[in-house]
Structures are given as structure tokens and as C-alpha cells.
Write a structure and sequence with these properties.
By secondary structure, the chain is of the alpha+beta class. It has one domain. The longest helix is centred in the C-terminal third of the chain and has 9 residues. The mean pLDDT is 79.
Length: 85
Amino acid sequence: EGLGRDPHAGEIFCFRGRRGDLVKILWHDGVGMSLYLKRLETGKFIWPASGSGEAVQISTAQLGYLLEGIDWRNPRWTQRPAKVG
């Protein structure tokens, strides 16, 4: 509510840690508030910039890329897969 949004309306709220390697996600699943936390072993989450410090809306696909550690502005893998064999 401090963000001027209704947490019970099904919106997802994402917050990044200061170092950029941690993301916390809050959402209301209809029963109660849920918390999801993810920390990257290497690299940092590419975070959308807000010039005025306001909330930024991103699409479901962009959120998926963000949580995988992929630059959602230009989707492609940031780490090469290990060779097998």
C-alpha cells in the first residue's frame, strides 16, 4: 500500500538487494502473502530503471528472463552452456 498499489489485486512486487544478486518477490495468492527469494551464484539481476523512483511494470516474459539472470532488454543467454563429452 505504501507503493500506491493494492497487494490483494494479484500484482507481484519485486525488490532487488543492494548488491544486485538477490531478488525478493511478494504476492497475494488469494489466501495469504507469499515470499519468493532468489540469489544468483554469479552475476547480477538486470533491473529496470525508473527515473523518478516510481514502480516499473514489466511483462510476464520479462520477469521470467529477469529471474533466470538473462538481460530482459535483449534476451539471450549470458553464460555459455558447458560442453558435454
